[in-house]
Amino acid sequence: MYNVLSTAGATVLGVGYIIPFIYFMWSLKYGPLAGNNPWKAKGLEWQTTSPPPTYNFETPPIVTEEAYAYAAHKEEHGG
Asked: What is the 3-state secondary structure (H, E, C) of 10-72?
């Protein structure tokens, strides 16, 4: 009885690993490429290209707002 229960549990776990793996492989082949800032994040780490150049920015950036100031960004663009 324990052997059957163990086999059933292993099968459920195996399917649980296989389904995301198949989806991952499908998205690598057919999924669209993400841009430099696909989430429109406001932090400095998202304001450079992907992959980043050696020095990230040619000149030091001037920070004028908080990294998570999304409410102000929505108001500027009528959102």
From this structure: HHHHHHHHHHHHHHHHHHHHHCCCCCCCCCCCCCHHHCCCCCCCCCCCCCCCCCCCCCCCHHH
Q: Domain of 24?
A: 1-31
Residues 3 and 24 reside in one and the same domain: yes
Q: pLDDT-derived band of residue 57, with 50, 70 and 90 as boundaries? A: confident
Structure tokens at 16: 């649980």
CA 67 to chain centroid, in Å, comes to 17
Q: Does the reported pTM lie above 0.85?
A: no
pLDDT digits (tens, 9 = 90+) for 31-50: 988 888 888 888 888 888 87
Number of domains in the chain: 2
User: CA torsion 44→46→47→52, rounded to 10°?
Assistant: 100
